[in-house]
Design brief:
This protein has 105 residues and is mainly alpha-helical. The chain is built from 3 helices and no strands.
């Protein structure tokens, strides 16, 4: 086994061991029911943040960008009705804390 494969296997083992320690008493097959939605949600938040940041560069601030996106959802690929209390924080930052500011339409 070459050095790259050893490093990849080591990283894979390290990630799996970390997941097992977080998982606790949950069975490994059931753990995916928890972790996969979180990974998907994290990716959605990251893409939405990238879109908001792109608009913020044009308009001068993330706060203005959030207002524009709320008014015209077609400015982004998809819209998340989540706004952090501090517009400079990432959208993901509010999800683990459960402090989502949902805007209903």
């Amino acid at each position: 086994m070459n050095d790259t494969n050893t490093k990849n296997k080591s990283l894979e083992s390290w990630i799996w061991d970390a997941a097992c320690s977080i998982r606790g008493a949950k069975d490994a097959p059931k753990y995916k029911d928890y972790i996969l939605p979180l990974i998907f949600t994290k990716r959605l938040c990251d893409v939405f943040d990238d879109e908001v940041n792109r608009i913020a560069v044009e308009v001068g601030s993330r706060n203005k960008a959030f207002q524009l996106v709320k008014a015209d959802k077609k400015l982004v690929r998809f819209y998340l009705p989540l706004v952090p209390d501090d517009s400079e924080e990432s959208v993901w930052s509010i999800i683990p804390r459960g402090k989502c500011s949902l805007h209903r339409y």
